[in-house]
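Intended use. Records like the one below are meant for learning the mapping from a protein sequence to its folded structure. Do not use them to infer anything beyond what is encoded.
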Amino acid sequence: MAINEAATSKLPFWKRTPVVGLVLWLIVVPAALAALGAWQIQRSATVLANTEILANELPQTLEKVRDIAANEPMAMLQFGAGNDMRSMPATMALAQIENAVASINTDLQVARVRAPMAWGTVIGSLLSLVAALLGLIAATVAGLRAKRSRDQLILSFERLRVILPFLLAAVIAGFSVAIFCGTLFESLSLWFWERVSGNGIKLVVGSVVLACIAIYGAFTAVLGLRQVFSLFTPEPMEVQARIVTETEAPGLWRFVRELGRRQDALVPDTIIVGLTDGFYVTEAPVHVMPEDRLLSGRTLHLPAPHLELLDTSEVAAIVGHELAHFTGDDTSYSTRFAPIYAGLWRALNALQLAKGGGLVVEPALRLGFHAAGRLDVAVAHWSRLREFEADKKGSLVSGPKGAASALIRTSITTPAVHFSLNNAFERPEASDANLVAAMAELVRQKGLPDPAEHLEDRQPHPTDSHPPTSQRIAALGVTLDDTLLARATRMPDGDQPSFGKKGFRDWEAFCATLGADFLGEARQFQTQYQQDLETAAAAVVEDEVIIYDNTKGMIVVMAISAALFVGVAVAVFVMASQIYLGDARILVAGFAFLIGLAFAFYAYKLSRRFDAPLMVLTRDTLISPRLDAPIAWTDVATYGVYAVQRFSLVLVLHPNAPLPKTRRWSLYTKVKRKKRTVTLDAFGIRGMKPGDFSDLVGRYLQAAYARRELEAKSIEAA
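Structure written out for the chain above:
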């Protein structure tokens, strides 16, 4: 616990406290944008009024100055008042006023366009703020009501599912409009500051481009949200199992019907038995493979391994627990609730995919995850109560100790089940079809683990979650004594028929069918996997590929820059008298010459690097002259190629992999030990685009891992 707290304490406070980020993005930032918009309204009104006054007065002033300049060209005219008073000849004043009159109409149009932009900033930020507040209120109210009852949980979040996508879209739209209008307003303000030099136009165009990028990101996000407005149709559950008819397992069906009668619970319409999943019931559609049948109605799934390893009372406790979910509309509750839960997360996934919108998407993401968090709290509350209630009902048919023994035994036999399945999946050709019998034999030979190590385990379920085993046993009021532990950890008795043998006409044949299905799928996967490995390994045929830094463009730029500065130095020295530099000519010329010399020296250094390899990709390693040791491809966990400001290849090495050292200091080529990264920089890759180079590195990386896997398989086979 101390380790987690120490790690958490290193995080920024806004990450340690999600509420801070929530308030910041949903309330503080929109409020700040609204305040900025109000200030922009005030500024735009002032500028517009002054510009309109100038538009009315300048033509009259122009006529007066024109008359004066015609009669007395050198007459001194005064403009302004107080400290801003300026004097200039009439001819000069005439030229400046004529320029001002020529541009005043454009100034007036710009001033008029800025006013709606300021209002757009206010309206957009208020829309985002109001939508965010409504979303917070709706999520909070739904979370509080959802704890009252299961019906309230469904009702509250059905409403939230309808409202939330619109609120998320409103937050995105409002935030993006506020940023777009605020950015354009401030960029148009540059027109009045930089109009003479022309830089104002460039800055305005740049700001418009950035604002349009933000709007495009928001538009993409809203399009992604459009998916959540469609009705949600649950996809059928894909299950690897076999349908069990009453002819195949008359004892099992009698057993289940008797449990249903004793619990006053509905019995399943279909029973399926598989190898890889646990005990569960569902009313959702189920697609059973490999029989390729679609089931509807009430379905009970039973795991064949546990039908072999648990006794009758333990199976009764667990099946009784599952049948209890058929009472009180428990499974219909799950079926009705699934679309709400999936719909909300689909909205968040759409937002995540649209994260290219950047800042404009962040507030909506915060709101969506907050609403999902409120939902999860309510779901966990009712899920916990549902499981405890079902445990009590299941214990009525087997006794509390039988139910507790079943919980412990399923937890401690699961590792043997997983080991057997994993071993068979990796070596299907060497495995017997009756995997269930192999699991029981493994338990007899190796024993069972300490139950104390598995008391915090949770029983697997495809759609719901279970509380830890220790809490479920405590809720049953059972003490973990030696008698209970001895019963739960007993070895399979080969002389006594298992529950599966009692319930099925031919248990061994049925288990062999399940095993054959599993092994057939494993063989198909292993064949495809082998082909993929061979394809990846064969993708690299060259012994080595030499990569060169694309320094040619920078050499040309440096050479031109050097020539320009040397030319400036010569011109200053030669024409010093004409440009009135006097004795300063030596200092200015010398400074320009030194800069040109520095550019020339850098161009020379780059030319020396022109034919030197940047890196060499071999079948097994990446070699760089900048590193003191090669990097084995199999030491690389992942990589990235970046080409934004500078071109760079970033390699992330495995925790135990050796880290090389840089041969010389470099501003960009770095080895970071804490992050386990190696960064190799360049101006670019000669003759190759960044995407092509990234594909090349990925091909070498995958080929190395594929060869290692093939070698391991070859040794293992031998």
